[in-house]
Amino acid sequence: MPWWGWLIAGAALLASELLLIDAQFYLVFLGRPGGMEAMQLRVAEEYVKQFGKLADEASSKLIVPATLSDVSSMIALATSVVKNQSRVSGA
Q1: Which residue in 15, 60, 82, 87 has the most C-beta neighbors within 10 A?
Q2: Over residues 41-58, mean pLDDT
């Protein structure tokens, strides 16, 4: 697997872990005013935290694809996943 494949796999794992960590909490609050914004803030906070860890743990420089460093696109992706899941589950 090329080096960027590992980064994409790591980002996908992070996104799935974020959704699992707070899924029960946000499922309760998503339907309430400000619930979606709270979820977006939580995703942004955790993403920045994990991205910082990636930078700290790197023993050498690496090239990061623009989409991986774009927090707003990751928040949009997580929001889209939640909205689509809500539509599918009928919530």
Answers
A1: 82
A2: 72
Spans of all domains in the chain: 3-86
Instruction: Find, among 74, 11, 83, 10, the residue nearest to 43 by Cα.
Output: 74
Which of the 8 DSSP states describes residue 64? Answer: -
The alpha helices in the chain, defined as continuous H runs, are: 3-29, 35-57, 66-69, 71-89
Per-residue pLDDT tens over the stretch 4-35 = 555 666 666 666 666 666 666 666 666 777 77
* pTM attached to this predicted model: 0.45
Q: Residue 58 class from Cβ within 10 Å (0-12 exposed, 13-18 middle, 19+ buried)?
A: exposed
Is there a contact between 30 and 82 (Cβ–Cβ < 8 Å)? yes
Whole-Å CA distances, 13 to 2, 23, 45: 17, 15, 16
